[in-house]
Description:
There is one protein chain. By secondary structure, the chain is mainly alpha-helical. The chain has one domain. Helices cover 71% and strands 0% of the residues. The protein has eight helices and no strands. It has helices spanning 10-19, 23-42, 51-70, 74-83, 86-95, 101-107, 110-119, 124-135. Helix 2 packs antiparallel against helix 3 (51-70), helix 2 packs across helix 8 (124-135) and helix 4 (74-83) packs across helix 6. The longest helix has 20 residues, at 23-42. It is globular. The termini are far apart.
Amino acid sequence: MQSVARVRDPKIMAETEEIRPSVHDSLQQVTELLRKHRQNLLREYEPARPQEVEELLHKQDLAALQTKLEGLHPADVAYILETLPLEERLIVWDLVRAERDGEILLEVADAVRETLMTLGKGTAGQNHNAWVLGAKHTF
Length: 139
């Protein structure tokens, strides 16, 4: 199956777009899930909610994001990774199943591929707190 993000033949593009939702819609949904995740993490610093509730919200946000990514074509995931800022890219990359790494790495731009391979999986958690704390200044 060819990707919407890489195909140039209008006939193939039309057939492919009928099967899969727009990659732009997927990007918007992923960005919204990341925003929601960030907001829920910021609430951890508010004493009003019990820690268990915060942890549950955190896990639900990440599970929804992972489910969304699993339903996307590798080229669409690559497009999303290329579009996101580094910190968010690392969080999304960490949620991609290992079995899909190769097919997605083939689709991303060289610079993004190098970043993902250099930083590797599991490093997103190290950058996660900085990403969340930086969010305090964007809301």
